[in-house]
Design goal:
12 helices; 7-stranded mixed β-sheet; homodimer; 2 domains; 4-stranded mixed β-sheet; Aspartate Aminotransferase, domain 2; alpha/beta
Chain lengths: 412, 412
């Protein structure tokens, strides 16, 4: 087969770099894949596939970094959006759908007595800390070192433009290390407003880490005893482990939880839910944005969540992700290579077990991607409800060829 | 005529309040109009009109608090969006349109050597401060006391959940009081990264204030001399005074400028532009969000800005706003009432000159709104390019009746 080239992507990027700092910034920066070997600009998509500006088509295992969950251009979501579009989107007031969605989500998610909507994951993770500070009248926030909770100053992975005061009251523990959690609680005793955590550990450039036995029960017990508001950052994992919230998958009860990404199949919406004790404090922390009350993303979310529920989308994604993992691991073994497939089946990550520098992984993902399945070498992947058995078959064929190249170039 | 009622809006709000803190939060909160006398939920819109869930139709002088600028459901903007929609919206990469829009905006706006895109006004105002801190290696930011720059902790008008460190390096001057500006610069000499200002002063619950003679030239000169990055927060006024940026209207050159609201006729997009000296620093300050690279809002922005340019939309809005102001002022005088109409013609505000408590204004706006033209009693209004002579005629008729009621109830 002819391997893909990315000439038009590269040309566009050269133009972009003249007019935009970095050309493409943030999590989509080409610097995070392998410059020159991955597409930079998308042209369209359908189901589990998308195509780039060079006309290359990909089976997509990144799913817009999470937002796509029932498939690009899903007819049911699009129909709902199209109907709303004819009426309009952004007005002086929310649409009736905001009330319907609030009722649907608080019914769907057991811990949710209330909900607010915003646009970015960062909007709601940051706001949730403020609610916890308002409620507890305490300043400190504790989080797992290295965890991504958004791009705001208190948590951004970047270093530029940060001042000391941005993190004056942020302290850190190590995910899955309960002793380090106890230590940071003890050190800041009586001053901690909130502990914010992801449901499992999903760093970039590293294996993913599921919670060890007892982690969540101990974290929750300590928070309850110490009057610390427990906040689940479910922005990345939300609706891919359990439609009712990833805490239901792992068996614990946060006081608040933040959602974004998969909530509306790509339409711009984020949400924070919380329990009753925090509702009054929540009403006192100002939150707003120019487009936060727009009806379209809410219509999309309602259609998307109902669709996922009706079709048991999570179970399908779990099945696809499990078989993808087994298939890739078996293929690697058959080539005499050792890979580590980590994380939950629906949000997996693969790397080569015998390297720290990701060179094999970059080579492998490059070779799969240029054949037609987008694999990211340093960021976790996402499975969608639109992935099919045929997708898996083709993906294994590309992976087989890519593993052969890695074996040939790296030995093992 | 039968006056409007808002029964369905109120019923929905009662349902909402059970599931959302405050029911409707932020700038759309019913508490900021007159509870029970204004619509709470929108159902659809076309051109300069929209209708609420009770079937009431309004000539809209709030324009979704700014985002609507060429008219609800403008066919040219919608056509562009529909074409993109068929291809998709949110992918692993931006679309080619991001490059086209970056080129268009840096061509349109004279101070713009580069641009970045985000979702909220707050996203870009906050980020611009970080860029200034990165560039200057200084911590302080100065702003006009009481100015709205967004909902983030350093600037939110709310009090809930704020800690001391959030504003440790924010200091204040008074808009249009150059001596107060000089004083705060002197006080923080050598430590100020940025001065962030709106192009004119647009507070809520108060008259708007255009810059006095010499204000901008003195502010700019001082910033240049002191190495302070001058940031224009053009989120509210942008594209309604001059398509090239509101600084062109007032005659000054900021180093960075932030846009949102009117940029894409209601589609969720914000932008920050800057000059070349800041581009390297800008590339070092991490920024991202789940939906920031989505193609649809960018397609909408490109169509909307081109449309505004081709149709000379700002001139039309200036004409409508000027005539609205003259008409309302003349009507008030004819009733023996004194009103103050302030701000630029395209973003006006009206209040009664002989009251501090806004009671007349609440009564007046209530009576106009329940007749069919949405007037806000405490927030500035927005004119759109879709407003017509017929809209003005009807509005004057409603205002005439409303002024008569105010006269009867308040005397003068």
């Amino acid at each position: 087969m002819a391997l893909y080239n990315f000439n038009k992507s590269i040309d566009l990027f050269v133009r972009a770099a003249k007019k935009m700092p970095g050309g493409i910034y943030g999590h989509m920066s080409p610097a995070l894949t392998v410059p020159g070997s991955f597409p930079y600009y998308a042209a369209g998509g359908k189901g589990s596939h998308y195509w780039d500006v060079d006309g290359n088509e990909f089976i997509d295992y990144i799913c817009a970094y999470g937002p796509m969950v029932t498939g690009y251009n899903h007819p049911k979501v699009e129909e709902a959006v199209r109907n709303q579009r004819e009426l309009g989107n952004c007005f002086n007031h929310p649409g009736e759908v905001m009330v319907e969605l609030a009722e649907y989500i608080t019914d769907l998610i057991p811990i949710a007595d209330w909900v607010v909507f915003a646009k970015n994951g960062s909007d709601v993770t940051t706001w949730s800390l403020q609610v916890a500070r308002e409620y507890t009248e305490r300043p400190k926030v504790i989080m797992a070192k290295g965890t991504y909770h958004g791009a705001h100053a208190w948590c951004t992975p970047g270093h530029g433009g940060i001042i000391e005061e941005d993190r004056a009251h942020i302290d850190y523990f190590k995910f899955n290390d309960i002793e380090s959690f106890y230590r940071v609680v003890e050190k800041n005793k009586g001053k901690i407003a909130a502990a914010i955590l992801t449901p499992y550990n999903h760093p970039t450039f590293a294996d993913q880490e599921l919670p060890v036995d007892g982690w969540w029960s101990k974290v929750q017990k300590t928070c309850n005893e110490e009057g610390i508001v427990l906040i689940l950052d479910d922005v990345r994992a939300g609706f891919r482990l359990d439609l009712r919230g990833s805490n239901e998958y792992f068996g614990f009860k946060p006081d608040m939880a933040c959602y974004c990404k998969a909530i509306a199949n790509g339409y711009p919406l984020s949400a924070c839910v919380g329990n009753d004790k925090l509702k009054n404090a929540a009403s006192k922390v100002f939150l707003t944005g120019s487009y936060w009350n727009s009806a379209e993303p809410m219509v999309a979310a309602l259609a998307n969540l109902k669709l996922m529920k009706e079709t048991n989308a999570v179970a399908h994604m779990m099945d696809i992700g499990t078989r993808l993992g087994k298939g890739l691991s078996d293929l690697a073994t058959s080539h005499g290579l050792r890979v580590k497939y980590s994380g939950p089946p629906t949000i997996p990550f693969l790397r080569f077990a015998n390297e720290e520098n990701f060179f094999r992984n970059q080579r492998f993902c490059t070779e799969v991607t240029r054949r037609g399945a987008f694999f990211h070498p340093s960021h976790n992947w996402f499975i969608s409800a639109a992935h099919t058995d045929e997708d898996l078959e083709k993906t294994f064929k590309y992976a087989d060829e890519a593993f052969a190249i890695v074996k040939k170039e790296f030995g093992s």
